Amino acid sequence: MPTLDPLLIGEIDPPQRLLMGPGPINAHPRVLRAMSADLLGQFDPEMTHYMNEVMALYRPIFGTQNRWTMLIDGTARAAIEAALVSLVVPGDKVLVVDFGRFGLLLDEISTRIGADVHRVSAPWGKVVPMEAIGEAIARVQPKVVACVHGDTSTTMAQPLDGFGALCRATGALSYVDATATLSGMDIAADRWGVDVVTGGLQKCLGGPSGSAPITISDAAAEHIFARRHVEQGIRRDDLRDGLGPRIGSNYFDLAMIMDYWSEKRLNHHTEATSMLYAARECARLALGEGLEARYARHAAAGRAMSAGLRAMGLSLFGDDAHRMTNVTGVYIPQGIDGERIRTAMRTHFEIEIGTAFGPLQGRIWRIGAMGYNAMKHKVLLTLGALEACLSAEGVKLPIGAAVPAALAAWHA
Ligand SMILES: Cc1ncc(COP(=O)(O)O)c(C=O)c1O
Question: How far away, in angstroms, is 366 Cα from ligand 1 center?
Fold first, then answer.
């Protein structure tokens, strides 16, 4: 037998990094503890009780009364894919509200489903005006309108009041990706009038990636159940297929997933128990803190981060009026290699800040403060560390200005 490197069989011992990028972030210790709880069989009454609790816990977090509020097993992208593949029938017109990478992802997924995709776009760093969305809906007459709430690629948050009404006026179903803002900024599925909203744990909810909360309106559920196709091996006389076209994915078939989360408990996948415990604990933490207090904490962190970066003499990316509170884009100073600074932050301070994608790659950093990391001391540590790393690279900055400015802005 070949000899094994002893490190391969040692216990995992990752460095204690402070994750101040656009997510993932450090999980709250209560979430990590919940994940180590004992496993249960998926139809154990305790397990189905926890599933029902999760449904109840996520309704206020999504700002909804929707019965169909549950989890998709997978990262946030899994819920996006489940929503779109279940709402969109191949050939349907889909309108994507696009102002960054994740809007383009909605286009990409819808295109793969076989939709006729149209876009109403804003340049990166801006959001799409509601009038432009209304005009595009009137022109395209889409079956589904899809939009991101907070697009971490640009750090912009799209205002969504009135969005659902615009979609419903022409009979379109609406979808919103709130992965990056759920429990950090005001998410109001019912007030927005949006049919399907999805999230992820690894941002403002303060958990690990791997479970994606979703909420589905009754209207959308009806549309999806019309496409119900009961899997061959579990057919029963009392279960009827819908008349609509079968959903083109088994794993992401929301009709089957809703049947699994309903009192029918129709078997689909094996619920990811430890991730369900994590999602449940994330929600309990958020509701225990109070959603308004949590939004205010994220807003304070965003204000403090912005003020500290500006006090350092750095320029923020994007439109001030539409910033996400939990992640801030900042231009890399002229002549500075952004990756060298990120490496220095990691090596000297054990702090991770984010790079950027597409047209912003090498031009901005994205610095987050969300969930368990939207804390005053973590923002101040990050700013102090960035100041030291920039100064060591020869950037001339007002030494000592960032931290007091951030502190003042936190309490403003
Ligand atoms: C707005 C937005 N949508 C979707 C995703 C994809 O999430 P995941 O990587 O968990 O699939 C991200 C991740 O950064 C995101 O920020």
Answer: 14
This model's pTM is above 0.90 = yes
Domain boundaries in the chain? 29-286, 291-410
| Cβ(179) – ligand 1 distance below 6 Å | yes
Cα atoms in the 13 Å half-sphere on the side-chain side of 293: 7
Mutate to test the pocket of ligand 1, among 73, 97, 102 (most ligand atoms within 8 A of CB): 102
Q: Is the CB of 273 under 6 A from ligand 1?
A: no
Nearest atom in ligand 1 to 202's CA: 10
Query: What kind of fold does domain 291-410 have according to CATH?
Result: Aspartate Aminotransferase, domain 1 (3.90.1150)
Q: From first to last of its 412 residues, what are the pLDDT tens digits of the chain?
A: 778 888 888 899 999 999 999 999 999 999 999 999 999 999 999 999 999 999 999 999 999 999 999 999 999 999 999 999 999 999 999 999 999 999 999 999 999 999 999 999 999 999 999 999 999 999 999 999 999 999 999 999 999 999 999 999 999 999 999 999 999 999 999 999 999 999 999 999 999 999 999 999 999 999 999 999 999 999 988 888 999 999 999 999 999 999 999 999 999 999 999 999 999 999 999 999 999 999 999 999 999 999 999 999 999 999 999 999 999 999 999 999 999 999 999 999 999 999 999 999 999 999 999 999 999 999 999 999 999 999 999 999 999 999 999 999 999 9
The residue whose CA is least distant from atom 7 of ligand 1 is 76
Tell me how far apart the alpha carbons of residues 121 and 128 are, in angstroms, rounded to a whole number: 6
Can you point out the beta strands (E) in 17-92?
A: 18-19, 68-73
If you measure from the C-alpha of residue 101 to the centroid of ligand 1, how many angstroms do you get, rounded to a whole number?
Answer: 10
Please tell me whether the peptide bond between 24 and the residue prior to it is cis, using omega within 30 degrees of 0: yes
Report the CATH number of the 29-286 domain: 3.40.640.10
CB distance 200 to ligand 1 below 6 Å: yes
List strand residue ranges (DSSP E) for 93-195, in order.
93-98, 116-121, 144-148, 150-151, 156-157, 173-177
Please work out whether the CB of residue 102 comes within 6 Å of at least one atom of ligand 1. yes
